[in-house]
Design a protein that fits this description.
alpha/beta; globular; 4-stranded mixed beta sheet; UDP-N-acetylmuramoyl-L-alanine:D-glutamate ligase
Length: 308
C-alpha cells in the first residue's frame, strides 16, 4: 500500500515543523541512582534537542528543505538552541525569541546498564504561542507539516490551516490533555509513542488500544515500540514491522528520528512497510550515540544497512 499523497505545488520547503526545541543536558551514569546516594557520572554532553526541531535536523541532513517554527527563550539556552538548529541548514526565519523567557531544557539521565533514559524537563509558559502570533503563510509553506502535542492550541490552529491548504499533517504525540482528541482528529498521520494509545483509550492491550484509537481519528495510525519496531493499522489489520538488533548506547531522540524517517518515506511515496523499515532503521542507528542529534545516521548509512 502506498499513500500516493498529492502535495501542494510551488512550496519553498519540503517539510515545515512547528513544535518543541530544547537544550539537553545528557548525563550517563553507571546505573540509575538510588535515593540519598552519590554517584560519579561517566559522560556529560550539552546538545540541542526537542521533538520537532530534531526531526527537522534529521530531514535536512537527508537532503530535504525544512523550516522550523517555534519559540526560544531570550537567555543563553535560547541562543544555543536556535544556533544548533540554524547551523544544520534548517530555516529558522519564523522562530520567535520570547523576551525574558527561559528556553526549554532537559536533564537526561542515561542508564549505563540498559541505555534507557529518564528525562527531567522544564518549559517556561511564555514559550506557548498566543493568539495571533502564528502566521498561516509560514505554517503552510511546505509540502508536509509536522507537529507535536505540547502547545496544543497552536498545533490545532496549524493543523486546520494545513487542511485548508491541502497539506498532509504528521504528529508526534505522547501525552494526553483535554484537547488531545480534538487535535488528533485534524491529523492525517498520527504516529504515537508506545504508551499513548493506552493512555488515550484506557485499554492496556496495545492492539486493542490502537483499534480504539482509530475510532477517534480518521488518520493513519502507527505506534513506535522501541527495540521491537513499530505497529500500524493498515486496511483494518495490525501490521508489525520489527526493529533491528543494534547495541544501544542512548535512546534519546530515537522517536524524533523515527518521525523524520516516516516523513522522508512519505516524500518518496514508498510502500507503508518500506517507510516503517526505514524509520525503524534510522531510529535504531541513532541509538549508537549519546543524544538526540549526534547519532542521526547519514542517509547512505541507513540505505546500506537496509540493503544488507
Amino acid at each position: 500500500m502506498r499513500f500516493n499523497l498529492s502535495f501542494p505545488k510551488d512550496r519553498p520547503f519540503d517539510v515545515v515543523g512547528m513544535g518543541l526545541n530544547s537544550v539537553d543536558f545528557l548525563t550517563v551514569v553507571p546505573e540509575f541512582p538510588a535515593l540519598n546516594s552519590k554517584m560519579r557520572i561517566r559522560q556529560f554532553f550539552k546538545q540541542g534537542g526537542g521533538q520537532v526541531a530534531t526531526a527537522m535536523v534529521a530531514l535536512t541532513r537527508w537532503g530535504a528543505k525544512t523550516k522550523y517554527i517555534g519559540k526560544v527563550g531570550s537567555d543563553e539556552l535560547g541562543q544555543f538552541s536556535l544556533h544548533s538548529i540554524q547551523e544544520e541548514g534548517v530555516d529558522v526565519s519564523s522562530v520567535t525569541v520570547e523576551p525574558e523567557a527561559t528556553n526549554q531544557f532537559a536533564i537526561i539521565l542515561v542508564d549505563g546498564i540498559s541505555s534507557e533514559r529518564t528525562i527531567l524537563w522544564d518549559r517556561d509558559e511564555r514559550l506557548m504561542y498566543r493568539e495571533g502570533e502564528l502566521r498561516k503563510e509560514e505554517v503552510c509553506s511546505g509540502k508536509i507539516l509536522h507537529l507535536d502535542g505540547h502547545d496544543i492550541g497552536a498545533a490545532i490552529r496549524c493543523a486546520r490551516w494545513a487542511r485548508q491548504e491541502g497539506i498532509p499533517t504528521v504528529i508526534d504525540i505522547d501525552k494526553v490533555e483535554p484537547l488531545t482528541g480534538e487535535l488528533i482528529r485534524e491529523i492525517d498521520f498520527v504516529i504515537t509513542s508506545s504508551r499513548f494509545p493506552a493512555l488515550m483509550t484506557g485499554s492496556p492491550d496495545r492492539e486493542k488500544a490502537l483499534f480504539e484509537l482509530q475510532k477517534l481519528t480518521s488518520g493513519f495510525l502507527c505506534s513506535t515500540l522501541g527495540h521491537e519496531g513499530a505497529m500500524a493499522l493498515v486496511n483494518g489489520e495490525i501490521l508489525y514491522v520489527e526493529g533491528f538488533k543494534i547495541k544501544a548506547v542512548d535512546t534519546t531522540g530515537a522517536g524524533d528520528v523515527f518521525h523524520a524517517g516516516f516523513i522522508y518515506g512519505l516524500l518518496q511515496n514508498w510502500e507503508v512497510k518500506e517507510i516503517l523499515r526505514f524509520a525503524n532503521t534510522a531510529a535504531g542507528l541513532k541509538c549508537r550515540e549519546i543524544g538526540g542529534r549526534k547519532g542521526i545516521p547519514a542517509l547512505e548509512e541507513v540505505q546500506t544497512f537496509l540493503s544488507r
